[in-house]
């Protein structure tokens, strides 16, 4: 491809394809460019200064509209951008500032009371393991019941599919888990 990139959006889109898309998906893009580009182009890379006063303890930005999670380290040496799942409806979405208060590798899971009302057939407790809805790692936020966590159901990523949490591929949450610390500031918008 020898075209000159004309806009920042084209540059970001091209960069994201190179960073986030598997080779098989690139082959799919050659065959069906509109389907893949429409999916990738929704990612939005925002400067941290538009959302945070500083990077003390690092920062995680969860963009509901673009279904992406960004991370900046305190010294700005690390920047990551991940595709994510987001809440299934505006009613389930909480927006604002919070922080990581706990990190758990191999989390267990209990549905919230409102989840049990909507889904009475769900178990009261799910132990850690491959079928756990929180995946392999979870970052617990200061808001009760809200997490940034993994998922083994990769169909959820890039979709409005959660009960309020932000979901990442298990390999991405493992990476973010290693980077984030208790006290990392979080904004969901």
From TrEMBL:
Gene3D superfamilies: L,D-transpeptidase catalytic domain-like (2.40.440.10). It comes from the Bacteria. Pathway: Cell wall biogenesis; peptidoglycan biosynthesis. Signal peptide: none annotated. Keywords: Cell shape, Cell wall biogenesis/degradation, Glycosyltransferase, Hydrolase, Peptidoglycan synthesis, Transferase. Residues 58-189 form the L,D-TPase catalytic domain. InterPro entries: LD-transpeptidase (IPR050979), LD_TPept_cat_dom (IPR005490), Transpep_catalytic_dom (IPR038063). The active site is at residues 149, 165. Belongs to the YkuD family. This is L,D-transpeptidase. It comes from Roseobacter sinensis.
